[in-house]
Amino acid sequence: MMVPSSANTSLKIACSSCNLREICLPVDLSGNEMARLDELSNHKHRFAAGDYLYRIGDQFKSLHAIRSGSFKTRVLQADGREQVTGFLMAGEIIGLDAISTDLHTCEAVAMENSEVCELPFAKLEVLSREIPSLQRHLHKIMSREIVRDQGIMLLLGSMRAEERLAAFLLNLSQRNAAHGLSATQLKLRMSRLEIGSYLGLKLETVSRAFSHFQEDGLLVVKARAVELIDLPRLRTLVGKS
Amino acid sequence: MMVPSSANTSLKIACSSCNLREICLPVDLSGNEMARLDELSNHKHRFAAGDYLYRIGDQFKSLHAIRSGSFKTRVLQADGREQVTGFLMAGEIIGLDAISTDLHTCEAVAMENSEVCELPFAKLEVLSREIPSLQRHLHKIMSREIVRDQGIMLLLGSMRAEERLAAFLLNLSQRNAAHGLSATQLKLRMSRLEIGSYLGLKLETVSRAFSHFQEDGLLVVKARAVELIDLPRLRTLVGKS
DNA sequence: AGCAGGTCTTGATATATGTCAAAATGCGCG
DNA sequence: CGCGCATTTTGACATATATCAAGACCTGCT
């Protein structure tokens, strides 16, 4: 794994006292089990915007829980084309793809200054054998990722450009709200190019869709600051009508 | 779960004597552990073409291993649009999406007469706590599904029609070969409409791509019988150039 | 074997999105 | 604070794929 020098500051930090506990690993544990969980993740790493958390082909050793900031993941084709496969934020677990072959199959790049907790996977497996609720939770995290991916396939395979953007914005809104942030005031961490890659569109198409939404009074957009004005109509747009 | 009457024939069957063992659950087990695994999957169910293995919203209790035949999985949008998310064949595990919420988020339909082994998930979790290599394998199966989904996102998000079809055919070819079948003689189980849904294309586009490939000497197609003539050139088409 | 219904192919045309280009805007850095 | 570069917006045009439509082809059933 590529860990830039700025990331060498590693701090001991306890899951039991983490304010993301309810989002990240919300398992119901006894005091003793919680103490064992604290042994699991003993290191926190820092990343600056543009730093790689891991690259394609890197050896897999640990999952990572995002403590602050955000990352994008992407896969590459031999001819250089890339596809952004996800935008991850605080409380989310990153690196599940690599369990399959012990090698990372996508790469993860910080989109801003970010911190992650390292979760050594071998330890996590031992612990989840001993703590059924942790085992259950690990399974749910992986399954949730599969469900998320299915949703993106639906989006890429059968939605039109504006439907895709609406779905994307509603998803961001919902995740923002889940963190106690505004459901309507969004600060985009990613460029039009990156949004386009994620949604299978060109950046110009993304930009035009934003402009069109604004003309229609669905939102107000100023570069990366977006205010969602009409959530219900955005929802009908994505076919949940 | 919806189990049609024809499926009520359930047979006791042992993993230890199953000829798909190397594909399905290739874990390295002691004799004692193998005996325990045999307790896991005690029932086999039959399905005819068009039967549902499960529907969206069904309660989740078991994963299923496909013993023979094939299934398609699909997700639906409220307005009726559908997206085929996968074509599964013998040895593959189906139902991983439902672990997340204990409800199925996609539906699975048999594409021909098929048999599945039921794997009660609660038992699987107990067993995988006791048998580390089984735990590891379960994790790998789930991660592999995530990797597969990433590949489809890449396909849907950044490949053109003919590249998508080439990638699809090469994937079928490879899986056929993994089962000891021909890598070049393919008998498609799915219609052009279903292929189109999977690849984010209309059936006419799929049909035209087939015709074009045939004109170019890449393959010979006659309805659902496809013979791949030029595998290397098909590979260059999907951008592995 | 022959018919019927579904599936597949092919053609003509429409359209959503991509491409190319230029101007406007925002933002980090000195 | 303002310069300069990257990002975003907008326009004109190109094109890949969708749509609509007709005919051909399988395949299963009587």
Please give a structural write-up.
2 copies of one chain form a homodimer. By secondary structure, chain A is α+β, with helices and mostly antiparallel strands. Helices cover 40% and strands 22% of the residues of chain A. Chain A has a 4-stranded antiparallel β-sheet. In chain A, β10 and β11 form a beta hairpin. In chain A, α3 packs across α4, α5 packs across α8 and α6 crosses α7. The longest helix of chain A is centred in the middle third of the chain and has 27 residues. The radius of gyration of chain A is 19 Å and the shape is globular. Chain A starts with 20 loop residues before the first helix and ends with a helix. The N terminus of chain A is likely disordered. Chains A and B meet through β5, α3, α4 and α6 of A and β5, α3, α4 and α6 of B. Chain A binds a DNA duplex (30 and 30 nucleotides) through α7.
SSE order and pairing:
The structure is a homodimer of 241-residue chains.
Chain A: H1 21-24, H2 31-40, E1 43-47, E2 52-54, E3 62-68, E4 70-76, E5 82-89, E6 93-94, E7 107-110, E8 114-120, H3 121-130, H4 132-158, H5 161-178, E9 185-187, H6 192-199, H7 203-215, E10 219-222, E11 225-228, H8 231-237
Antiparallel strand pairs in A: 1-8, 2-7, 3-6, 3-8, 4-5, 4-7, 9-11, 10-11
Helix pairs in contact in A: 3-4, 5-8, 6-7
Chain A binds a DNA duplex (30 and 30 nucleotides) through α7.
